[in-house]
Amino acid sequence: MSKPSHGNGWEDRTLLEGPQTRRKDLGLVLRSVRDFVRGFRALHFVGPCVTVFGSARFNEGHHYYQLARDVGSALSHLGFTVMTGGGPGLMEGANRGAREAGGRSVACNIRLSAEEYQNAYLDQSVTVHYFFVRKVLLFKYSYGFVALPGGFGTMDELFEALTLVQTQKIASFPIVLMGRDYWKRLFHLVQNMVNEGAIRPGELDLWLVTDDINEAMSHIRKHGVEDFGLTSRRPPRPSRILGEPRITAGWTTQ
Predict the structure, then answer these.
(1) How far is the C-alpha of 77 from the C-alpha of 123, rounded, in Å?
(2) What pLDDT, on the 0 to 100 scale, is given for residue 23?
(3) How confident is the model at residue 1 (pLDDT cuts 50, 70, 90)?
(4) CB 129 within 8 A of CB 157
(5) Quick check: 70 and 93 in contact, CB under 8 A?
(6) By the 8 A CB rule, do 243 and 42 touch?
(7) Which residues contact 240 (CB under 8 A, 6 or more apart)?
(8) Whole-model pTM?
(9) Strands 142-147 and 124-128, how do they pair?
(10) I need a surface site. Which of 177, 215, 228, 238 has the fewest CB within 10 A?
(11) Which of 106, 227, 254 is nearest to 173 (CA)?
(12) Are 37 and 43 in contact (CB under 8 A)?
């Protein structure tokens, strides 16, 4: 087996290509732990978030970009910190909408060879090496999830959220898909899963598919604020000694 080149992404290929030397496996574990520690420190005080998923490939001229800005703005007015993967496209749109609305905008980015440069609308961010670390951080701080139109990465994150709620690995946080026309074939596929008995009919209630920002925010308020007893309170103070950043929180747990 040839060794992977040391270009972008070589650590991931090394991690996933099978057994390595003990020393190399230990190095991969330690790098993962370092990413987790950096992520926990960077995001500890961001307050309850809603994570927005979406394609990096729809630029500012695309109508989905404006949808992302509207979602980010609406979530900020609802009192949540907007979290994304930190890249361009619809992630940038959601972060930008939050920033323009005077809300909090954070991200967990990942090192890739293309597309995933960090956007300019972030109050706080962390960059990690591995997708699994990024997923943990995106889900750890969130009380809801919004899926905007996207590709494989967006689908992966969306179904991760659905699976975690379905299996009760996380609480029943609201999951909203924005864009009925974009998602309608996926919804038909999932309906067929119900018809075939692969999932239970009630599990379709795990998500809301809509074009209406107000409907989406009402759903998130009901199932992400009221159901979990979130209230507006003063957040804990970060430690200057530990170099912890301060981001003013809106909603927090009672």
Answers:
(1) 17
(2) 87
(3) very low
(4) no
(5) no
(6) no
(7) none
(8) 0.85
(9) unpaired
(10) 215
(11) 227
(12) no
The residue type of 15 is: L
Q: Which amino acid is at 133?
A: V
DSSP 88: S
Q: In the Cβ-directed half-sphere of 244, how many Cα atoms lie within 13 Å?
A: 17
How far is C-alpha 48 from the chain's CA centre? Answer: 12
Q: Which helix (H) or strand (E) holds 217?
A: helix 213-220
Q: What are phi and psi of 109, to 5 degrees?
A: -95, 170
- In order of start, what are the domains of the chain with their CATH numbers? 35-230 (3.40.50.450)
Tell me the two tokens of residue 207: 């998500």
What average pLDDT does range 175-181 have in this prediction?
Answer: 97
Alpha carbon 250 to its chain centroid, in Å, reads 18
Q: Taking Cα atoms as reference points, which of 247, 242, 238, 165 lies closest to residue 208?
A: 165
pLDDT at 115 exceeding the cut of 80:
no
Q: How far is CA 6 from the centre of its chain?
A: 28
Report the distance separating Cα 203 and Cα 9, nearest Å.
36
Determine contact, residues 92/66, Cβ cutoff 8 Å.
no
Q: Which ranges in 19-171 belong to alpha helices (H)?
A: 22-43, 63-78, 90-100, 131-140, 152-166
Helix (H, G, I), strand (E, B) or coil at 230: coil
Looking at 34-38, 168-172, 212-216, which range is the least confident one? 168-172
Handedness of CA 82, 85, 90, 95 (dihedral sign): positive
Pair of tokens at residue 46: 């961001």
Whether 133 and 39 have beta carbons less than 8 Å apart is answered as: yes
